[in-house]
Amino acid sequence: MNDQTFRTAMGKFATGVTVVTTKHGEDIHGMTANAFMSVSLNPKLVLISIDEKATMINFINKSNKFAVSILSEDQKDVSAYFAGQDKEARDVEFNWFNDMPTIKDSLANLTCEVYDSVTAGDHTLYIGEVTDISVTEGEPLAFYEGKYRQMSDLNGVV
Hints:
Layout: H1 3-10, E1 15-16, E2 18-24, E3 27-33, E4 36-40, E5 45-51, H2 56-63, E6 65-70, H3 76-82, E7 95-97, E8 100-102, E9 108-120, E10 123-135, E11 141-144, E12 147-150, H4 151-154
């Protein structure tokens, strides 16, 4: 099996889209991630997976906390910006939640303290203990076969 076959197979798993943010001092950093999942209800734990080459690693290691914003179907541009696909400079107005920067108008925002981390291959898996949550209504932004999708796009596909 080659790398492309592996990527193609993983692309068959439809996911939601998140932006992970953190701050250290006055420095704020964010990145798009679809490698996110719940781990435990008691205690409330979630997992994010970050590429070892990503600068986010240094920020999380210094701050020992992060936030996750679960994006709505109208936030494709936000995802593209934090994924580095939109190179146009912009001032991002964050929603401050539990003293952490989160993405405004997201379906859910979670703030987390690092509970544990594990290096696995070329990624670090951060398990975060959820310290606060806010939730709103709406439809999620999805990612399937390497493309952004809306739930209506996936009817009959998944």
